[in-house]
Amino acid sequence: MANNSSEKEEHAYKKIDREIKSNIVKNLLFLYGRENFLIHWAVDTLVQKNVNEVCREMDFSHLDGTTVTLEQIINSCETVPFLSPKRVVLISDFKLIEGTKSKNLNEEEEKRLAVYLKQLPQECMLILTAEGVDKRKRLYKTVSEVGSVYEFGELDEKSLRSYIAKRFRESGKKANTSVISQIIQTSGYYDKDTDYNLYNLENDIKKAIAYSEESDVGIDAVNHTISGNIDTYVFNLIDHLSGNRKGEAYQILHNLLVSGENEYRLLALLASHFEIILSVKEMKEEGKSLQEMKKLLGIHEYRIKVAAMLTERYTLSSLRKILRKIYEIDKHIKTGLLEASLALELFIAEI
Hints:
Blueprint: H1 12-21, E1 28-32, H2 36-50, H3 56-59, E2 60-64, H4 70-78, E3 87-92, H5 107-117, E4 124-130, H6 138-146, E5 148-151, H7 157-170, H8 177-187, H9 198-211, H10 219-225, H11 230-242, H12 246-258, H13 263-285, H14 290-297, H15 301-311, H16 316-334, H17 340-350
Parallel strand pairs: 1-4, 1-5, 2-3, 3-4
């Protein structure tokens, strides 16, 4: 989750990278969060640092956290490394620490595992990974007490921009700040409840690199290769509407409907986005800061910045009028006065 404080917490990937380089990583680690791409990077880096590649098959053990038993964990951790600084044991997708019951680890065995973790051999590094965590669990509390916990959440905007620019540089391409902004906006990386992550972004960047014949990656490449999500397309539709580019807005609506997108969901998203734009407009006029808006709205600051740009094209009264129109259309659809797709087309025509 994004940090709402004015002082941003160091991201897990920066923290663990610094600790690896300084040789201060503990031998019990728990890595979790949205960004599996970075979790896999961290695991690979830890294995490379601690396991002799020649002895990888003997000194590195990967266990499936959905089926692992207590006996397997202890046996793997107690095995002495052959020619490596440490034996690394990875338990991936460890559901037990998320709060999901395990068929292979009962409550008594969980207690025994928590005790064992406190006496883990120094020559063993045990890495646990999961999507989420139940911080009430005995295992989590034990790892927090004697090991290190790293939450790999979304990247902040500065880090994300740096990541994108670096990937283009590594491929011999360049992308200016406006193109990088378009990539972030089109991808929907900061959209609420998005499942778009760095794996998706990495694949989309590769497609943009392959699409671009010139050294400079342009907006055209972004439009043809960045997959994005429904939230992003609705924001783009609103952007075209606010610039009186109704033809482009109709095209986005047509593409969404042809792809099978639900009209009711589209209308709900239009309402949600215009509500955000209105809220940002009101708070800007009240003199609220970006951090205050972020705290009050509970969304990422990048989305607030995008909404703030759109507020320049509307007055408060026009935004309220648009929202009344959306609520009116929703009512007409539900009462059968208007067919849903026609209602959306009329909305674009009348805005």
